[in-house]
Amino acid sequence: MKLLDKIPLGPLILAAIFMSLAPFKPQPHLWEKLNMLFAGTLSRPVDIFDLFWHSFLIILVVIKLVRRSKTASDTSEG
């Protein structure tokens, strides 16, 4: 987790936005794969990998924000 703490939040957020929206046309892969997941048609390994690939940085941003808020609350308590 120390490696994640060293990554600056701003560039990580920009990369996460870019990856979640890529490719821009005809529709973002993340949106397409999430629709497939909720429709129950996400079954091919390449589609599962694509969902992971395009959402990985978003997951890292969430983990980093949770760790940051937890650290901030720990330091403010005492």
Q: What is the ordering of alpha helices and beta strands?
A: HHHH
The helicity comes to over 70%
Q: Whole-number average pLDDT?
A: 89
> What is the overall number of helices?
4
The proportion of strand residues reads: under 5%
Can you walk through the features of this model?
The protein is mostly helical and 78 residues long. The protein has helices at residues 2-6, 9-21, 29-39, 45-77. Helix 2 (9-21) runs antiparallel to helix 4 and helix 3 (29-39) packs across helix 4 (45-77). The longest helix is centred in the C-terminal third of the chain and has 33 residues, at 45-77. The radius of gyration is 16 Å and the shape is elongated. The two termini are 23 Å apart.
List keywords for this structure.
single chain; 78 residues; mainly alpha; 4 helices; 79% helix; 0% strand; elongated
Layout of strands and helices, then pairs:
Elements: H1 2-6, H2 9-21, H3 29-39, H4 45-77
Helix pairs in contact: 2-4, 3-4
Question: Quick summary of this structure?
Answer:
With 78 residues, the protein is mainly α. The chain has 4 helices and no strands. The chain is elongated and about 45 Å long.
